[in-house]
Hints:
Blueprint: H1 3-35, H2 38-45, E1 49-54, E2 62-71, E3 81-90, E4 97-101, H3 117-122, E5 125-129, H4 149-163, E6 171-176, H5 178-189, E7 196-200, H6 212-220, H7 224-239, H8 241-254, H9 263-280, H10 295-306, H11 318-328, H12 350-355, H13 368-379, E8 384-389, E9 412-416, H14 430-443
Helix pairs in contact: 4-5, 7-9
Amino acid sequence: MPNSYIAETFTMKKKRLTLSFAAALVALSLVAQTDSTLFMRQLCALEGVSQVKPLETTRFKEKYVLKMEQQVDWKTASKGTFGERIIVGMKGADKPTVIVTEGYFADYGLRPEYEEELSALFDANVVLCEYRYFAESVPQPTNWDYMTVDNSLADYHHVRQVLGKLFTGKWISTGISKGGQTTMFYRATYPDDVDVSVSYVAPLNRAVEDGRHEKFLAKQVGTKAERKAIKAAMQELMKRKGELMPLFHDYCTKHNFHFYLPEEDIYDYCVLEYPFALWQWGTPVSTIPSSDADNQTWFNNFIEVAGPDYFIYPNKYMPFDVQASRELGYYGYSLKPIKKWTSLKSTKGYLKQIMLPDSLRGYDFDPTLYERTVRFLQQSDPTHIFIYGEIDPWSASGVCTWLDCKKKQNMRVYVQPRGSHKARINNMPDNMRREIMDRLTKWLK
């Protein structure tokens, strides 16, 4: 039998199979449309929205995860597009909508019990937006030149425009930490996109190593006795380095940790990170072991407070590190408490040395974002609430250190006494919580 006949017959059979498969897909699609809700069909009909999938929820009437097409570079459409992961929780089209300007991943929003604090307080819809270049929202190919704050803000603006066709009530932007920064930048750049903004524990750094955090940790945070105890703990960890390094090495090996610097240097950086991490998460100073505790007790505490996983590569937080070195800034370390015991000569430039590969160390810091945000907050009066924790080191570079709201009608800053990076509306002192709620309720009428 001629080879050409065999090929033709095979091709005809393949076409029939393809047509049958296509018919089956159409049938499944019709079933899905029949089973889907009106809201899901509305989501699917939005321009640029794809991969709409229902999620289990105990908090919303309906909840979905989807992809929204975004431009890689909002200045140049020819650079292509990517899909940003969005999680939508629906309570009612005319109810308020909380747009979460997440600074990192959106995975947590997939949990059935997920609900943002403001959504619970005001019975609001939620639109949780994963930040570009994180998790499932990474452009391919990945050109880091377009990992900028302005591009991310344009992403959020586009989400607001598209989903604003379905959610017709008032809009609230909010975020925590880097997400809180993003809320701040978003309001300053697109002031009319939302009716209300709430930034939780949001720093506004003025340099890659801002400089205010070291002073805060050395002279301002907590009590003098607490600061003395933490300094003593750092020195105890350095004195015991020879005995703890084998445990440190085994721990890193067991977890398959890799670093850009030698393990001995990473150990010292973990000691430098110890006070920042302890205060950030509100770990009681009383948990620091006594000077006569055994090595295992000290090591366990060390790992729990400031483990080496913070400095590993590959690091899932690397997109943030790129932004920190370019626009967001970060904090520095003071060698003074451990100078007698460390072999480190300087920590200047540590962010790039420890967190970034050689290929991403070439970006210089640009203070433009910091300067324009400060100018906006000083000169404007948006309906914006800032929440900080008093002992959170990030508050050292927060707007709470310089923003004067006395002459403003709207904008307010609240600092939770002895509060950490976990400061929220619901755990504020009663008088502060009532004032915040009254203000938000008024704005959302």
